[in-house]
Write a structure and sequence with these properties.
Strand order of the largest sheet: 3-2-1-7-8-9
Strand content: 15-25%
Helix content: 25-40%
Number of strands: 9
Structural class: alpha/beta
Bound molecules: nicotinamide-adenine-dinucleotide
Length: about 240
Amino acid sequence: MNEIEQLKQWIQESDNIVFFGGAGVSTESGIPDFRSVDGLYNQKYDYPPETIISHSFYVRNPKEFYRFYKDRMLFTDAKPNAAHRALAALEAQGKLKAVITQNIDGLHQAAGSREVLELHGSVHRNYCTRCGKFYSLQQVIDAEGVPTCDCGGTIKPDVVLYEEGLDQRTLQRAVDYIRNADVLIIGGTSLVVYPAAGLVDYYRGSKLVVINKTVTPRDNFANLVVSGKIGEVFAQGMDV
Ligand code: NAD
């Protein structure tokens, strides 16, 4: 049995699949990841992207932060691809319990997924840091420079910047889903960003699948490694 057939069989047999993914899930939707050769980290800016999207940089230099953020991290035309669609379909069939994602693009919800745990937040939620008022992504895009609230405060995207902590409740829910999963599918993530990557250690089953274009630090622990583009893999594995 080849890898795709094995994946298909485990998906067919299970009603407790959990998916854990990262930026690679959205590259086939035209959103660059961070660490691929054509990813964001291999392009040249005045500061390294890791620096710009850190909390201290945001506080010190919100103007430059927003210039980079609006230019390089917002992809309003991006549409869900076959991987997003397949995961939404599996949930609708009662087979998949949750999507746990490091992505901030909202494409899983756009595809119809309901139980989406966004470990690093979402560009679609934005709040005034002074009064807490909510702002949409469009309002952030339409603002000139640094978006400002009616109250005069600065609007910050609800995304987790470097140096910031993750939401503890979301983390705990992710742990619970992974701990109880029958099949855990990890896909499109370099598994180097912690604490998110450490969540996969909570898996206790024997059907750990890694679907990725390049090798990951967890390939050796996986029960099945499918190397390839995740949208194409899901399209072959599931008729989406
Ligand atoms: P990463 O850039 O570190 O790694 C992406 C991984 O996906 C790489 O191993 C790459 O080989 C693989 N990959 C790329 N395209 C693929 C495809 N089509 N099919 C299968 N594999 C593919 O991303 P990460 O591990 O998610 O960690 C980086 C951080 O980047 C996350 O915290 C996330 O918040 C943030 N991020 C999010 C987005 C987004 O929301 N779409 C985009 C860029 C970065």
